[in-house]
Amino acid sequence: MPRSEALDTIASLNFQWVDLGMLRTFNVGEGPFRALHLDALEVDADEVRQVRDRLDAAGFKLAAVNAGGGYLNVPWEREEGTAYIRRSIEICRELGGYAVTIQSGKLLRGTDWRANVDYVAPVIRELASFAAETGVELHIEGPHIEMLTHNLATTRDFFEIVDHPNLFVTMDPSHIVVADEDPLEVTRALGHLIRHVHIRDGAGASPVIVPGRGEIDWPAYVRVLQEIGYQRPVMIELCQDESEEYEASNARFLADTNFSQRFMRNVLDVVASSDALAR
């Protein structure tokens, strides 16, 4: 949807927190994907102010910016990708968000994983320091299919190599399902790093399942978030098939959003009720 229509729709569904899509088109596996409601290198200060005013008028709080303008381990994308993240950090701060989520780098099969991480590590340290100076956290989404942080082991190793105090994890458990790992155990293992959470389900090889229709045990997952002390919003993140006719795609997307919202509210109510009984 155009940004204004998207914000109107979100407001009509009574959400309070939003993430802002600032992802230029990129490939995940063989498929192109984008989520671009604001382009960091094209937007001017007036448009950023307009977005802030629109968020304020709707009573929204910005949680995070999902940013990407090029893979940091692809040499011909590295410079612009770095500039894109730097500007995204500034925009996030101007809009009142607490985190910028980026990808660790493209999983380039047939190349050395450690060499790729060593290549991106200095840039990510620099960006994490810049974010800290700006008053924003820098997050890596991990695990994430087809990225350098594609499972628990690579996510752990990536953070150990980069080793920066302002680098954290945005967790999306749908990608853990695709890695054929246990979302509960992986989330526990990375709990000390998790500062933002996307809610999406997974099944088999697909990380784009509507919450409640995949393999994740959501009440158990919420309890794990409690265990690790997570107290920030959880953000429903769904995907549209843009090859569909626009109106049909939007109708399905709205139905999926309504279902997800009702489902997650019920999950939270169930967990809260069981916690009250336990006390």
Automatic annotation (TrEMBL):
<protein>
    <submittedName>
        <fullName>Sugar phosphate isomerase/epimerase</fullName>
    </submittedName>
</protein>
<dbReference type="InterPro" id="IPR050312">
    <property type="entry name" value="IolE/XylAMocC-like"/>
</dbReference>
<feature type="domain" description="Xylose isomerase-like TIM barrel">
    <location>
        <begin position="9"/>
        <end position="254"/>
    </location>
</feature>
<dbReference type="InterPro" id="IPR013022">
    <property type="entry name" value="Xyl_isomerase-like_TIM-brl"/>
</dbReference>
<dbReference type="Pfam" id="PF01261">
    <property type="entry name" value="AP_endonuc_2"/>
</dbReference>
<dbReference type="InterPro" id="IPR036237">
    <property type="entry name" value="Xyl_isomerase-like_sf"/>
</dbReference>
<keyword id="KW-0413">Isomerase</keyword>
<dbReference type="GO" id="GO:0016853">
    <property type="term" value="F:isomerase activity"/>
</dbReference>
